[in-house]
Design brief:
2 copies of one chain form a homodimer. The first copy, chain A, has one domain: Up-down Bundle (Ferritin), CATH 1.20.1260.100. Chain A has 6 helices and no strands. Chain A is elongated and about 50 Å long. The first copy, chain A, starts with a helix and ends in a 7-residue tail after the last helix. The mean pLDDT of chain A is 92.
């Protein structure tokens, strides 16, 4: 029996965080670089990433000696739940950047652990790594452009 | 090799959420029942629960066919990360109560799945179930006593 539905259900939690903590007027008022994606694109990107990371975890769940790899997957999804709340909820741009950096490291560790289990599962995690790199660059750019921005 | 440190590290994420989203003046101003624990007690209780749930997960990690059980553990810890942010960050008391109810169900499912793997691991989850029951009752009581409370 595939555990894909369970892993997708876990991804529904950071998705819910993203819906509860919306960008809003504060985000619109920030100085953002020209390469910032339009707001509407973020849910589309995250939906694709959630499906991929859940398929990857489901593949690894079928493997022996997979507890470290799936534990790292759990770590990264928990950190991911925190970011929207901190950035859009607390307006803490620097803390948000720190969280993305830690998340990126956790996703990298998960991907490497998946590589030891199942090549295809590791490949399915690489768009997430690429997106994390982009998101960190965007968060840092917003931080530099808005030095006066105060936490909520 | 025990995975206890990894599961404890995962628990550090909802712990960080609890530190970033503090009670504050809004919470102090709420009408609360006489059986509300003092603020200082919550971190102590959570520290004990995190150690217990991490020890339980580490025991289950040593078992065969444990992917469903550990996946449910990942689900409950992700939901737990969301509560502080929603209650103390958004001041959404009803949504907070819904989240605790969903969390309680996830902890119950985890405990039952652990029971099939390791009796001691399941026993280690029962204080968490008891605390979840109490926390839900407290959240509902605060909801009833503060019908005018507005979201942030």
């Amino acid at each position: 029996m595939t555990l894909f539905p369970l892993y997708l259900a876990i991804c529904a939690v950071p998705a819910a965080a993203g819906m509860l903590f919306r960008p809003g007027a504060w985000y619109r008022g920030l100085d953002k670089p020209g390469w910032t994606p339009p707001d509407k694109l973020f849910p589309v990107i995250w939906a694709v990433l959630y499906v991929l990371m859940s398929l990857a975890a489901a593949r690894v769940a079928g493997q022996p000696d997979n507890d470290l790899a799936l534990g790292l997957w759990a770590l990264q999804i928990t950190i991911s739940t925190l970011w929207s709340a901190v950035f859009f909820g607390l307006h803490r741009i620097r803390t948000g950047a720190v969280i993305i950096a830690v998340l990126w490291a956790a996703v990298l560790a998960t991907t490497l652990a998946f590589l030891r289990q199942d090549m295809l599962a590791a490949l399915m995690m690489t768009p997430y790594l690429a997106w994390g790199t982009f998101a960190l660059a965007l968060n840092i750019s917003v931080l530099r452009r808005n030095p006066e921005a105060m936490p909520a």
